[in-house]
Amino acid sequence: MFVIFFECPVCLKTFARNATRKLHMELHNLEKAFMCELCGRSYSSQIHLNRHIASHKRDRKRKRKTIIKKEESEAVPQEVEIEATNIVEDFLEL
To answer: What is the CA radius of gyration of the chain?
Structure first.
């Protein structure tokens, strides 16, 4: 079987597909033309920018879950403190 490899002329890394080599070549490009509008970070390819933007979305979901969990858990420690205080007071009375 005859296999053709596509080689990066900069670092000599080889790829099975030319499209993959072209994506890789963007890493060597010093110009980062794709900028995130949310935080200003720049990337050399649209694919890397898309992955970065997805991380913003994941972070927002995590923050929302954390806020909800904090709101739910805020009531619990107060009740636990009251119970613990009552137990200590009962113990001291003995």
So the answer is: 28
